[in-house]
């Protein structure tokens, strides 16, 4: 991974750049990284701030030979890679807020946006876009209470290039394990050991309404298992659903 590296000082969005490269045949493992993004994209159509020099913003292009319906698990694989890399490099213990936010003491350190181009039975490419808050000390008002950075958490100035290398190193190993199983079979135990709110009460906010339960863990296909008061275990599928600790 990362052998084909596209580096930008300022760009619109590394996901957008890499999508274009993907259409033009860029190889598996291509990486686009930017010092600043002017149109950074977040999940659910949100904007993602990438102030110059203070975030690690990059995207990874993958061409996995797996069924398209299994591709959404890649975002959980990426979360695991980032959580491992940050812990190793920054010397802290991060958690994963299902499906793919990295948090420290409940505050968001990293977001991941996965986009895919595929037809019914074949993936053309998957773009995994990763934004890690490294150096920022000020956040926009809307996220002031919910976001944090490695600088705020550790007090240290960490090098974004080194962190990028660590994430790619971890991802490479986990990616192989995931693709060969086409499931999270081998990664489930570690994912669950890093899962925020595991064994705790959570609020599940679905388009059809909100309900509460105990977060039990994940399934090998990436669904979150939440047990209702009446004992019934529900499989929560990522998408429009938000799960919060209470
Ligand atoms: C989220 O909403 O939590 C996902 C944020 C993903 C941001 C990253 S930054 C690098 C890549 N390029 C983008 O435009 N978005 C992703």
From TrEMBL:
Gene Ontology molecular functions: ATP binding; biotin--[biotin carboxyl-carrier protein] ligase activity; DNA binding; transferase activity
Enzyme Commission number: 6.3.4.15
Domain BPL/LPL catalytic, residue spans: 1-179
Annotated GO biological process: protein lipoylation; regulation of DNA-templated transcription
Catalytic activity: biotin + L-lysyl-[protein] + ATP = N(6)-biotinyl-L-lysyl-[protein] + AMP + diphosphate + H(+)
Keywords: ATP-binding, Biotin, DNA-binding, Ligase, Nucleotide-binding, Repressor, Transcription, Transcription regulation
Binding site for biotin: 13-15, 37, 108
Coiled coil: none
Protein purpose: Acts both as a biotin--[acetyl-CoA-carboxylase] ligase and a repressor.
Name this protein carries in UniProt: Bifunctional ligase/repressor BirA
The encoding gene: birA
Parent-protein start and end of this portion: 77 to 322 of 326
